[in-house]
Amino acid sequence: MTAVDTALRVLLWSTTDGGAGAGPPPPEGELTDPQQLAVPPADVSAAVVRLAAQSAARLRLDALASGERRPVGAGALLLAAAVGGRAQALLAAETVRAVPPARSLWDVLAHHAVVAPALAHIGDRTLAGRLRAASPLTALLDRPDPVGESDAELLLEDVLLTHHQGRRLITTVYCEAPASPAQALWRGRLLDQLRMSERELVIDVYEAALLRHTAAHLALIRRARVGLTAPPDLAAARPVASWWAALARLERSHRPLLRARSGIGKEYLAGVRLYRQVERLEARGGSPA
């Protein structure tokens, strides 16, 4: 089995099982004859194009992507080979290093379609970090490897925020209760960065969170507050508090805007209180007194 064969199997998995968000792990294979990845057969190139189009439809970015005239590059194929060859961690990591930057929105979509569903099945942290760094949309929607932060931010500012479909995607994804502390810190930081330039979008995110995911958010807040008894566990509470930072600051500076939103009820105050409690504890060096 060659690297191209391995990559094609992973591409098909990304289109079916991986794209569905459940099911078996991505298939594994060899990474022999990797030079063939540079000039793949026509059917393999077509599979990458189909995957990118499917990713656009799934994320409801089809109208935004329709304006992209640059073709899909070789990056998604290399990423698929690395995912399939993950048992050979060093060789797989070298394969990811050969991935060129995503130059078109089709590249961005194809990279995400391969990397996002595969990450849960990558046991090697170095390989997982490199995969994440090679997929700016995965980094933006989940959380980035440190080297991928700037690419994720540029994708947000230069592409997604320029189109209503991109803005809707950010609202839909970011309103969910964070799945990990790292994700909470990343999303909280971006929401706070956008608080001045994209205030309405930020409020949209919090309103959607309170309408669609109230119970999940309140559960995270309760767990964080339990940990703030003496001695307070700031490390555990800080990520959850960070997610609410932008809303807490808007509550101070633009309270009428929040009150004008029918979906923002009194539940948001629990998040604001958590943020302020953590803020006070940090100012005191972690002491509750």
Order of helices and strands: HHHHHHHHHHHHHHHHH
Largest sheet: none
The residue fraction in helices comes out at 55-70%
Q: Calculate Rg over CA atoms.
A: 21 Å
Shape assignment: globular
- Helix/strand-derived category reads mainly alpha
Strand content: under 5%
> Which residues sit in consecutive blocks of at least 5 with pLDDT less than 50?
none
What is the rounded distance between the termini?
65 Å
- What is the mean predicted local confidence, pLDDT? 93
Q: Helical segment tally?
A: 17
How many β-strand stretches?
Answer: 0
Polypeptide structure, described:
By secondary structure, the chain is mainly alpha-helical. Helix 1 runs parallel beside helix 2, helix 2 crosses helix 6 and helix 10 packs across helix 12. The N and C termini lie far apart (65 Å). It is built from 17 helices and no strands.
What is the fold's blueprint, element by element?
Elements: H1 3-15, H2 42-58, H3 62-65, H4 75-84, H5 89-97, H6 105-118, H7 125-133, H8 136-141, H9 149-158, H10 164-174, H11 181-194, H12 199-212, H13 214-226, H14 234-243, H15 245-253, H16 255-259, H17 268-283
Compact summary:
The chain has 289 residues and is an all-alpha fold. The protein is built from 17 helices and no strands.
